[in-house]
Amino acid sequence: MSKEEQHSFGVFKPVGHVVISLPGAEAANRAAQALRKLGLADDAVHRYTDTEMTRRIDEDIANASPLASIGQEMNLILAHRVLAVRGYHWLVVRAADDEQAVQIARAAEGEGAERAQHYGHFIIEELIEPGSEPQVAESPDRGLDAQTPSGKESESVMAVPR
Length: 162
Known about the structure:
7 strands
């Protein structure tokens, strides 16, 4: 997966992939093992440590086009950064279709994944619900709704250091 295939307007957008956040290396290892059982090709799963993801996100933020803030891509990478700084690891998994994306998310969720987003050309779908608060409107100005009382990712249970 080349950098060009994963970016839109300078920010991370791996279309046709599921981006999974896991609370540490052990959870990422378990999830990667679970994904192997789904019969995915060896090159379908890409792993990123917390440090790698933070570096990649910081590069994206520095190089982002103003057009990146029109959709939710910029808000999503900012939410990913909060988790990466707190030690989350990442799996980026190629999915053949929506059904396989759901299977990938369920397998990873069973191993501790707390977020999984399926990136399409026009929509990014949450496959693991992030919280118990009712969702409110999201926008480029307001950012993503983390489904916490304030709507901020930093307040979520997932963002609390472990």
